[in-house]
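Sanity check. The docking grid for iron/sulfur cluster depends on where the pocket ends up, so I'm generating a full predicted complex first rather than guessing from homology. Inputs follow.
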Amino acid sequence: MRRFLDFNTFFTNKFKAKVAKLSLNSGASCPNRDGTLSKGGCIFCSERGSGDFTSDYKDIDKQIYEQKNLLSKKWKAKYYIAYFQSFTNTYGDINKLRDLYNYVVSKEDIVGLSLATRADCLDDKVMEMLLELNKKTFLFLELGMQSVNENTIKFINRGYSHETFDENIKILKKNKIKFLTHLIFGLPCEDKGDILKSVNYIKDIHPFGVKFHCLYIQTDSPLYAYYKNKPFRLLSKDEYVNLVCDAIEILPKDIVIHRLTGDADKKKLIAPLWAADKLSVISSIDKELKNRGLDLVV
Ligand code: SF4
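Predicted complex below; grid placement will be based on this.
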């Protein structure tokens, strides 16, 4: 039986203890939101810069304290990954960000740092910072690739080409900076062939990890206005489950699967409504993997 790595298994094996993520906010903006590239941002981007469950921006010690308190109700973690999820965490005042990240990783129980960013926001100064952090902690970037198809990239208003993505991840690989890629299934301009083209690209570049998302419509994203004017068909739960299982079958088994489905904000979710029940989606994926003779390591 083939087996696959999930976040918990990978980090528990690596640090021999439970590791949890602290969702923190660096206060960074995004060039695709502040008018540098566009003001609207990626078409699915929410008010909080695609970080709907991150802390409010305030004193970092306070954020850490509050996140640990919140997590302690669910898990008893020994170690933490500092996860800067919303907006573009390698954009803006790099000296300030460098100080912030160095401060966070100096804490004894914070064993890793995860920075959500864009592949076009990795200039020399940023790379210098990443190389420095990479020596100090378990660093990995999260890159919102979503698709390799140029028509889709234009539709989602990502703001840079696949060529740029490809060039810059080669620099990350050369410098041994780990990254994971986000993929969205169900974009209106994509069929199964387009989706699997993106999955096969991930197979070839072999990142540290991957996150799968289904496309959903929230009231606070530009996609909502588009959907109201031009409604399109969204994936059914079964279709999504099957696509995720197809992707897992294609990808090398040492790629860490950090997420099997996205975290829709239930209060803002318009469609598909099944996306609100994350546990049911995960359980259907587990069931389908078992049907196919593939199992997640849990
Ligand atoms: S790169 Fe991220 S923060 Fe910026 S617009 Fe796109 S989804 Fe939003």
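Relevant for the grid: Residues 32 and 38 are 5 Å apart (CA to CA).
Also worth noting: The pocket of iron/sulfur cluster is lined by residues 30, 32-33, 41-42, 45, 49-50, 87-88, 118, 144 (CB under 6 Å).
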